[in-house]
Amino acid sequence: MPKSFIAKVPYDASHPPVLAVYCSDGRFTDAVEELAQHLGHERIDTLTLPGGPGLLNRWSADYLESDVVSRAAHFLIKGHDIAEVLLLAHEGCGYYKARHGALGAEFIAEQQLKDLQEAAAELVKAYPGLTVHTYRVRPEGEKIHFEPISST
């Protein structure tokens, strides 16, 4: 049986004002948190599942997937008083490869862009005044590059 563990990071009862929606691929977790800190956010709420913000696009994701992720995002935005959302799609995403791999890398990149734009539009429509940033994320050697797509 594992031993009990106590984190060194102190508990903060306040909710962060920013939500990051991205793929659950652990190769990008630390980099997303670093991006948030670069943007001035010490902590973030996260919604991470394979495909990330692509699941918020009801036109390209399965209805049930999209419904669950949309409900979770809306719960966090409303319940945690989120003011800003980061939507991130990464190059080499297994979700997109499984869904669209036969159509090629260029199609996947275009679909990710469409999904980011649709997800951002839906969130802003549901929550006027919400700031949404979209990023295309790609590894470059040992570095991870965040390319801003747009902000709303």
Give the oligomer, counting copies of the same chain as homo and different chains as hetero.
Answer: single chain
Number of strands: 5
User: Portion of residues in helices?
Assistant: 25-40%
Query: Which ranges are low-confidence, i.e. pLDDT below 50, for 5 or more consecutive residues?
Result: none
Q: Overall pLDDT, averaged?
A: 94
Main sheet: strand order:
2-1-3-4-5
Shape field:
globular
Order of helices and strands: EHEHEHHEE
Rg value: 16 Å
Count of DSSP-assigned helices: 4
Largest sheet: 5 strands, mixed
Name the beta content range: 15-25%
Secondary-structure content class? alpha/beta
> End-to-end span in angstroms?
48 Å
Organism: Hyalangium rubrum
Protein name: Carbonic anhydrase
If you had to describe this structure to a student in words, what would you say it looks like?
The chain has 152 residues and is α/β, with parallel strands linked by helices. It has a domain at 18-103 and 138-151. The protein contains four helices and five strands. The longest helix is centred in the last third of the chain and has 22 residues, at 105-126. 32% of the residues are buried. The model has no long low-confidence stretch (mean pLDDT 94).
Task: Provide the descriptors you would attach to this structure in a database record.
5-stranded mixed β-sheet; globular; alpha/beta; 5 strands
